[in-house]
Amino acid sequence: MARFELSIKDELMADISQEVRKVGFNVLQGVTLKTPKDTGLATSAWLVGIQTAPSDTPTAAPGASASAGLAQSAGLSVIGQYPKQALPDLWIVNNLPYIGRLNDGYSLQAPAKFVEQSIAEAVSGR
């Protein structure tokens, strides 16, 4: 009698990786759009890394109007490289020393906890 075996690991890994990429981009989009804008530096400072968190800290902003799009474009490029058959950490970071204060509500341009809000919205699919 012939035996039939089926492994769904490869299909599951591909599906999970695709979901990580989707949620990752949605988080990136949320934080870049919600980050308070003065010079645009805080918005353009959102970086994406696979396996390790980026440690760069930008020193000049490209301009407040273009910075969200540039950060999203650069981040999407990295997210697109997320592997299909492995699940390394996907990092979305902002290394500016004052990003925590902005997230705590220091600026009237964004609600307090806009980072956490962006994550919750991305995970729930809103």
Describe this structure as you would to a colleague.
This protein has 126 residues and is mostly helical. It has one domain. The chain has helices spanning 9-34, 41-44, 64-79, 99-103, 114-124; strands at 46-50, 90-94. A two-stranded antiparallel sheet has the order 1-2. α1 runs antiparallel to α5. The chain is elongated. The model has no long low-confidence stretch (mean pLDDT 90).
Helix content: 40-55%
Quaternary structure of the protein:
single chain
Tally of alpha and pi helices: 5
Output the radius of gyration: 17 Å
Structural class: mainly alpha
H-E string: HHEHEHH
Chain-averaged pLDDT: 90
Number of domains: 1
From the N-terminal CA to the C-terminal CA, the straight-line distance is 50 Å
Largest sheet: 2 strands, antiparallel
Number of strands: 2
Strand order of the largest sheet: 1-2
Name the beta content range.
5-15%
Unreliably modeled segments: none
